[in-house]
């Protein structure tokens, strides 16, 4: 089972690396509305995956894994996550891939994320009231059930996401089409992971951070750790596979390089490695704190949940992108480096 999970992580990392979706310059480029590859791939993946996974479930080969719509956590967590994603320039899953490629800022983001995992475990009992109310595992399926009306609505919604991805491509400056294959690949990979005979769960990444941090610090005698230990263990192995993908592919291509300051950071924030290191740590902390409040991240919430047409995941996505774009404008443009 461990080998299988690592292989799934390898495939995940290879898909991201193929389309450069893990790169700081690409994700920060999205925050600045200069590079829409990540948004295009996500929309394509949700549209493709929605069709594949819902048919797979209807045929009895998989089950739904809807994240509960915890309103305060989804909204506040989404805003914090989006800010962290803009500043850090990575997601919880892409951190592993980029770290494998030698990105030192990704390493610092992981350290910040691990600290956030410990902090969240400690403060959870005190912030629980602001995370609610819990509206339940609400989705298009939970409202309609598996009937003709559900599928009549499913296909137009799924095709709508694909249409959005193609529309974004028309207005995007970057005209490479690798994001199309990456989006379809992520949809197919989610379908495989969802299968009852494979993993019987969604893809995810952010639970690995509090799980690993709490395990290392001995913070395991609490209800939260008991809740996350099974998915967290799975995600640690999955992200190890993603890390290996980044490492092996970069070594094979001959472009493995230890790097702290990337081109987009240099353009907007200057050449100071210390400044980048501090903000990478802060960004990683915000990223995982927000993900834990919302109950998921880009892969586990927006992608996996979006493919299930879960209201919590789609709402999370909206607030993440609002915060991502607002933070990108404020953080990068206000601090634009000038000689």
State the helical fraction: over 70%
Morphology: globular
What's the structural domain tally? 1
- Measured distance between first and last alpha carbons: 54 Å
What fraction of residues sit in β-strands? Answer: under 5%
Describe the sheet with the most strands: none
Number of helices: 15
The run of helices and strands is HHHHHHHHHHHHHHH
How many beta-strand segments?
0
Report mean pLDDT, rounded to a whole number.
Answer: 96
Low-pLDDT windows of residues = none
Radius of gyration (Å) = 19 Å
Structural class: mainly alpha
Describe the secondary structure blueprint for this structure.
Elements: H1 2-18, H2 24-31, H3 37-58, H4 71-88, H5 92-100, H6 104-131, H7 140-144, H8 148-171, H9 178-194, H10 208-217, H11 223-253, H12 263-269, H13 273-294, H14 298-307, H15 311-334
Question: What would your notes on this structure say?
Answer:
The protein has 15 helices and no strands. By secondary structure, the chain is an all-alpha fold. The chain has one domain. Helix 3 (37-58) runs parallel beside helix 9 (178-194). The longest helix is centred in the C-terminal third of the chain and has 31 residues, at 223-253. The mean pLDDT is 96.
């Amino acid at each position: 089972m461990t080998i299988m999970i690592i292989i799934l992580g390898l495939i995940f990392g290879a898909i991201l690396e193929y389309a450069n979706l893990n790169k700081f310059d690409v994700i920060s480029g999205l925050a600045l509305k200069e590079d829409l590859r990540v948004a295009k791939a996500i929309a394509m993946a949700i549209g493709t995956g929605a069709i594949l996974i819902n048919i797979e479930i209807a045929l009895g080969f998989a089950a739904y894994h809807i994240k509960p719509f915890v309103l305060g956590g989804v909204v506040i967590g989404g805003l914090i996550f989006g800010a962290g994603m803009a500043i850090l320039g990575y997601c919880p899953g892409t951190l592993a891939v980029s770290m494998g490629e030698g990105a030192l800022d990704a390493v610092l983001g992981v350290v910040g994320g691990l600290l956030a995992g410990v902090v969240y475990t400690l403060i959870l009992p005190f912030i629980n009231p602001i995370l609610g109310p819990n509206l339940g595992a609400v989705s298009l399926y939970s409202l309609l059930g598996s009937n003709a009306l559900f599928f009549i609505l499913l296909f137009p919604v799924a095709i709508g996401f694909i249409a959005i991805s193609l529309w974004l491509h028309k207005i995007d400056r970057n005209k490479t089409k690798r994001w199309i294959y990456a989006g379809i690949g992520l949809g197919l990979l989610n379908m495989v992971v969802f299968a009852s005979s494979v993993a019987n769960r969604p893809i995810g990444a952010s639970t690995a951070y509090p799980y690993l941090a709490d395990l290392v610090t001995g913070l395991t005698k609490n209800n939260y750790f008991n809740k996350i230990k099974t998915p967290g263990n799975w995600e640690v192995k999955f992200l190890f596979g993603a890390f290996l993908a980044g490492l092996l592919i970069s070594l094979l291509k001959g472009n493995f390089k230890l790097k702290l300051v990337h081109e987009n950071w240099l353009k907007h924030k200057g050449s100071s490695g210390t400044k980048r290191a501090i903000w990478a740590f802060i960004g990683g902390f915000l990223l995982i704190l927000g993900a834990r409040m919302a109950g998921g991240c880009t892969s586990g919430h927006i992608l996996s949940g979006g493919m299930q047409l879960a209201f919590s995941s789609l709402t999370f996505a909206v607030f993440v992108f609002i915060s991502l774009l607002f933070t990108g404008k404020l953080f990068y443009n206000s601090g634009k480096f000038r000689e």
